[in-house]
Amino acid sequence: MKYAVLDFETTGNQSSDEIIQVGLAIIDHDRTISQVYSSYVKPSVPIPPFITGLTGITEEDVLNAPLLDEVMMEMVPLLDDVVLVGHNVAFDFNFLQSALDRTGYLPFTGRILDTMDFLKIMFPSLTSYQLGFVSGEFEVAHDRPHQADSDALATALIFIKSLEEIDDLPLLALQRLSDLFSGEDSDLGWFFDAALQDREKETDPSTDGYTYYRQFALRTEDWIDIKPPRSEEMDNPLEGKTFEQFMDEVRTNLKNKLPMYEEREAQNMMLGDVMKAFDEDKHLLIEAGTGTGKSLGYLLPAIYHSVKSEEKVMVSTHTINLQEQLRERDIPLLTEVVPFSFRAAIFKGRGHYLCLRKFEHKINKRDFVTPKEEVMTAAQMIVWLTQTETGDDEELNQGNRGADFWETVASESDSCLGRSCPWFRKCFYHKAKHEAGVADVVITNHSKLFTDVKAGHQLLPSYERLVIDEAHHLEDVAGKHLGMNMKYFTVIHTLTRLFKDSRTGQLPNLRAQLQTSGSEKASEWMSVIDNLYPEILEIKENWDRLSDQLFGLMPERSDAAPGDPGQFVLRLLPHKKPKNWDDLSEIENQIYMTMGTVIRKGERMMNELKDDDDNYSSESLVTDISGLFKDLGAERDSIRSFMKLDNEETVYWLEGNGHYRSRSLQIYAVPVEVSEQLKALFFDKKKSVIMTSATLSVDKSFQYMIEQLGLTEASEQNQLLTSLLPSPFKYREQALLVIPRDFPSVKGSVGDDHFVNTLVQSLADSAVATQGRMLVLFTSYRMLRQVYDPLKEVLSAQGITVIGQGVDSGNRTKLTRRFQGQQASVLLGTSSFWEGVDIPGEALTSLAIVRLPFQPPNHPLVEAKSERLQQQKKNPFMKLSVPQAVIRFKQGFGRLVRSSQDRGIVIVYDTRILESYYGKYFLYSLPGPKMEHMPTNQMVPRISEWLNHR
């Protein structure tokens, strides 16, 4: 096969736009690139500035270029008898057909392949399929992105890499792929069919390193064979060894492994503090700033303690990201430097693991809702099974539509066949559970921690000692889990999985099986199923009505991003229900009754089926359907408890966004206070709970956290240790905090013209001084929007790009990556950028904080907490709003200096930090940067002077 890899640069994306550059790389039968053709093309229209900005192609470049006619004359012979390949090939293909047509050639009728498809299928764990990113990952030379010849060559090299990856696939996986695509008449199907025929001619297919089971090729082994660590050794490796002696060995190994390793005073203090809390059975609050090395600061004592005393230590993180970082970076390092074998297991919520039984069923039955997208996702997962040892969805880049597919194949407790499942020994969830059972240290997340508590400690192995990282989120997560949060789609998903239409859904699947089963009661059960359909549709209609009317009660919030969850918010008060609440309760009552009927009939039929038929294929279906009826029961009870609005200790509210209206509805019922529950569940029960984060103290005191987390009693009884670690960075030399003291102030979430103009001018001047590399944090999306356009206009003349959250497409990770990838850029972000964004080094030089990050006082939970404090004769502003804002402010400040080499500027445009009585809490809470205030017009000269003075 001969391939032609094509790339065009054009004046725009519309069919009427023109080609300005052509790149074509020819791949020969032996997979070598035999020729690269490239040429500029002279367009009949000027090149738009944004295209020049993107591609670097200027009017001068195309001034004397050949016309399209001449270029096509040279190109057309090269396209003879080839398979056309491109990255997002539809774009280039459309331009090719239109160019052939314009210049009088016949259209291209050959096969067309897209490298995007190959990357998705063959490299399911790549975090992005953008050409630039993939080139970097594959170490493919791509020196001039967005220039046609460079793009075509990079695409060709990536395509060859994909072909080599297909060569290494086990035969069975290739057969599965060929089979998947055979149902549709596509060029991709043709390609896999041809690849399979070639492979089957080979005499000796290699089977190294794979397990073959039920016609799937897997990387994973039977988990029953996984032994506890040190199972062969008789003696405890830490017998008679103190923690200091253990640490001496670890440090020696670290120095040998990492020549750059240097001891950090703060980390050594942390190791001692955590060990002390373990030894004395006490709780510990420990603030460890960026650069402390806090993961090792708690993992090493946890490993020492668990191995020496032979009891598990549980570690919990807030984000899955941090869990992944521990898995990929810290645990492998510790495995090499700890002088004996130990096991640290990662254990997530059940829905993160693939259920192989459901996946097998879905593939064999071709049970696809949207065939085109779902066949791609299925293909991706067939390849992923030859690579993954964990079956954890975080390893998969599923794209937007993949999430719906995942929901139908994720592991769930209600549909688990346990030991009677043919996949039991290979099951990813049971493997993770078994690994956690035999591990010394188990790393989970806050979410799973609370799910476990709610399930009566059935999910996690038992533990007496717990380390909570990112502990400033604990209260928030506790509220969500100890309360109730349900989405519109929670109910819809359950209903459509039971019955979407007469062909799709688990009930129609069961009906089809019964029809051919020959069971004497089959027709009776089929009529039960037929009678359930209209009732399920009735529930859906009523739930749509209820969601619609609930959404209609909410006013729009002025400071939120469009499409933000929480853009529409309404708190519901038990003693003051909305005026038409009775009508809504009537709809809820109909839902409750119909759901009850469906669940009763359904469960009775499931029990009869279980007794009647022991055939595996319907056993798995019956289990899945029983699980769905259970889900429906839980949803029915949640809706009922919400609509009752009868608990004064609970905050009830609705949220939604304007894009999806009632389909975005979320209902919440969260306890006002979780401190009592945290105390009862953790601090009274566990011997030792370590809570750490970069932001736990306010004005050098832990009092706020002690009260919020329910640690007051432990503190009074001397059961609580606290520790504020010194920063490892030299903040006075590394960071300068500047406050323009004459800056205009602002009321509410929208700035007046004077404020916005002054801000735009000042941001632009500062960005020029720092050559972009600036992150601007807003507390309200409306204000971000006010600044975005004028700032973009001023800076584009200086060659500095402005990227805005919610304006430019992409999630936080994508926007951050764009910001890091472009030398001179300014990134505007709201709430989610205040923490968890890591941009080390030169990419970030200055951080501008537009307003102090107070939470909107009208958020239902903040409002309810404030009322509670007023009842206790306390000042909600000083007790709640200020400490919350200080912690957020410290998180924002922490984005700037991420290593001992970083230097940077922080500008705070909110003069309340100087003028108000509470401003000092913000300044005193920072880790000691150099602070200066001055008139606005002196700020930029001072910034330039400080940056140049190294």
TrEMBL record:
SMART domains: DEXDc (SM00487), EXOIII (SM00479), HELICc2 (SM00491). Signal peptide: none annotated. It is an enzyme of class 3 (hydrolase). ATP binds at A288, G289, T290, G291, T292, G293, K294, S295. GO terms for biological process: nucleobase-containing compound metabolic process. Residues 253-530 form the Helicase ATP-binding domain. SUPFAM superfamilies: P-loop containing nucleoside triphosphate hydrolases, Ribonuclease H-like. InterPro entries: ATP-dep_Helicase_C, DinG, DinG/Rad3-like, Helic_SF1/SF2_ATP-bd_DinG/Rad3, Helicase/UvrB_N, Helicase_ATP-bd, Helicase_C-like, P-loop_NTPase. This is 3'-5' exonuclease DinG. Keywords: ATP-binding, Exonuclease, Helicase, Hydrolase, Nuclease, Nucleotide-binding. Residues 762-942 form the Helicase C-terminal domain. 3'-5' exonuclease. A motif (DEAH box) lies at residues 469-472. One of its GO terms (molecular function) is DNA binding.
